[in-house]
Design a protein that fits this description.
Helix content is about 25%, strand content about 30%. It is of the alpha/beta class. The longest helix is centred in the middle third of the chain and has 17 residues. The protein is globular, with a radius of gyration of 16 Å. The mean pLDDT is about 95.
Length: about 220
């Protein structure tokens, strides 16, 4: 059986390699590595025009919206908190278009950290722009326990409480239309959301930085169906 093609969104930033320092499409290698470990083929999706999103999604079996920069608060009608990072407007526009296209096509979607937040915004939700205790410092992953909500899709994939690698200072505030929480941190932060009736899941932590393939494997199985 052929492996499903899983598109993974990317950063757009300046990078240095060899003698070069140029604008680059970037993605931590852990993302495609996890897709492969879960049985899929990874395809990187650099920012493009929003009008290309439907055509791109039509060629994919599943979509991963990767972590990264804070979603611009204007996207959910909020003023910018001083602790919110600089906007990544091109990436916001591209990924929102991809999410809209995937939802319209019924393509399985997994949002990771920023990707979960962007999924919430795409469905009309809002974000809490700053919280403490979900990192171990600048550039250092934290770790905390996530408890699943029984009866949810996430709960069926990972039925027990687990320690997860985490690096975020923002979180879901008002849930987007149709989304339900499917995991919580011990401090009450919503750590996973999903859209009942379709394979659409967002997780606030970074499964690509862990050995547990169950969440990504769930996406790959759905993409194979």
């Amino acid at each position: 059986m052929s492996r499903p093609l899983i598109g993974v969104t990317t950063y757009l930033d300046t990078a240095r390699w060899g003698v070069w320092e140029l604008p680059a499409t970037l993605l931590p290698a852990a993302y495609p590595r996890l897709v492969r470990a879960a049985g899929g083929l990874a395809a990187l999706l650099p920012p493009d025009g929003a009008d290309a999103a439907a055509a791109v999604v039509a060629r994919l079996d599943g979509l991963v919206v990767a972590g990264g920069a804070d979603v611009e608060p204007a996207r959910y009608g909020a003023a910018r908190d001083p602790r919110t990072g600089p906007p990544a407007r091109e990436r916001d526009a591209w990924e929102l278009a991809l999410v809209d296209a995937a939802l319209a096509a019924g393509t399985p979607v997994l949002g990771v950290c920023r990707g979960m937040q962007l999924l919430n915004v795409a469905l009309g939700g809002t974000l809490l722009q700053h919280l403490e205790g979900h990192t171990a410092g600048v550039g250092r992953l934290g770790q905390h326990t996530v408890k699943p909500v029984p009866g949810t899709r996430y709960g069926s994939l990972v039925p027990e409480a687990v320690e997860v690698p985490t690096y975020h200072h923002q979180a879901v505030d008002r849930l987007g239309a149709g989304l339900v929480p499917s995991a919580y941190a011990e401090d009450g932060t919503v750590e996973a959301v999903e859209l009942p009736g379709s394979w659409v899941l967002g997780v606030q932590w970074h499964p690509e930085m862990d050995d547990d393939t169950r969440v990504m494997a769930g996406l790959v199985r759905a993409a194979s169906a």
